[in-house]
Specification:
Elements (H helix, E strand, L loop, with lengths): L15 H8 L4 H15 L7 H19 L23 H4 L5
């Protein structure tokens, strides 16, 4: 839930539970959005705050989900598959266009 869905959240410091509410199930498609929401939530907290520490760990995990798990499209009609944003690796099958 966002601060707009929980107006009382603006009247207090973010908690570990607030971070956990944003963590939930995250797919590559929504990982960067969730990452940004968590980053905004914890930005004003001191470095040793439990909610900030949890949020920073979750941001790292969401970065991995967003950049390491995405599917960048399949090869087709003589075009190679797109490489992963993470490593620039193009699957071996994508380098073979089938052209003789």
């Amino acid at each position: 839930m966002s601060e707009y869905e929980q107006p009382g959240r603006l009247e207090r410091a973010p908690t570990v539970e607030d971070v956990r509410q944003l963590m939930g199930a995250s797919t590559p498609h929504f990982a960067t959005h969730l990452r940004n929401r968590i980053e905004t939530l914890i930005s004003g907290l001191p470095g040793d705050d439990p909610a900030r520490l949890l949020g920073e760990r979750e941001i790292g995990r969401l970065d991995q989900v967003a950049l390491g798990s995405e599917r960048r499209g399949q090869e087709g009609q003589g075009e190679p598959a797109l490489p992963s944003l993470r490593g620039g690796h193009v699957p071996e099958s994508a380098t073979d266009t089938g052209a003789a």
